[in-house]
Amino acid sequence: MGKRMSEEQVAVYRREGYVAPLRAVDAEQAGRWLDDVRRCCGEAARPESSAGLRQPSSRVKPYLLFPWAAALVRHPAILDAVEDVIGPDILVFHTTLWWKPARSEGFVPWHQDATYFGLMPHEHVTAWLALTPSTEESGCVTVLPGSHRHGQLPHADRKDPRVMLSRGQTVAVAPEAAQAVPIPLAPGEFSLHDTLVLHTSAPNRAAEDRIGLGISYIPTRVRHVGTTRLSATLVRGEDRYGHFDLEPAPRAEADAAARAAHADSLNRFWLASESIPEMSLAH
Q1: Does residue 36 contact residue 131 with C-beta atoms inside 8 Å?
Q2: What is the pLDDT of residues 132-188, one digit of tens each?
Q3: Which one-letter DSSP state was computed for residue 112?
């Protein structure tokens, strides 16, 4: 038995590249986090620095801006499950709030998370936490089981305003749709998926927004292969490697220190991402 998952669940993750559903919190706590998200990361909260971006910058690494988000990525139920697959020394490398408005056209094409992160070895795991119902109608995450065993696949940038990924990264050869498996989640539930598993999500055809948080966790032994030194947050255990500058937790909601740490982390990340495609495929 692991800390959170059974031996069978861990085996499923290793074999299929994902496991779901897992319960992080009850619906009441998920609702409180959802209220925080709407207040801090809605369109009304869009800062001037987000102009021209696909989404407000507060939706990327919000755990550096808001104490509630810092507590969320450190929640023991999520970390226990992550520890079951990558070990006890854990960093948060990246986090994105995925917000699909009701009856909107935004979608995520088939891709592997590893493609533009430039992380080695490929031991990154994403925890996808639902804050609203994530259903097939609302465009839940859909995976291709076992696809992580094929390694890093070629991708290309896709110029389509409907694509919700930063560069439109799309796998060169799309998988057969008949083999895809949707991952519906209720508020407070989460899934784990491997950095190399192919996954996608369709537009939201439901009458309500679909909102969830994708949290990228890595063991401290993982490094970034680019020339830009990146930052990450230690959320469990210890860092004996020093591959990343450690990020501070916010002491107050979006205060000056939090905004500075957030801006510094994002500036490094976007700078590094410009050279990641070649590095991801070459290593």
Answers
A1: no
A2: 999 999 999 999 999 898 888 787 777 767 766 666 677 767 778 788 999 999 999
A3: -
Angle between helices 7-16 and 76-86 (to 10 degrees): 60
Contact 64, 247 (CB under 8 A): yes
Judged by phi (left if over 0) then psi (alpha if -120 to 50, else beta), residue 188 lies in: left
Query: Sign of torsion, CA 244 250 251 257?
Result: positive
- Residue among 116, 143, 101, 105 at smallest CA distance from 216: 116
> H helices of the chain, where?
7-16, 27-41, 67-73, 76-86, 256-273, 276-282
Angle at 259 between CA 114 and CA 280, to 5 degrees: 15
Distances (CA, A) of 241 to 3, 234, 269: 24, 12, 20
In the chain, the largest separation of any two C-alpha atoms, in whole Å, equals 49
Euclidean distance between CA atoms 128 and 147, whole angstroms: 18
CA 78/CA 74 separation, integer angstroms = 7
pTM value is 0.91
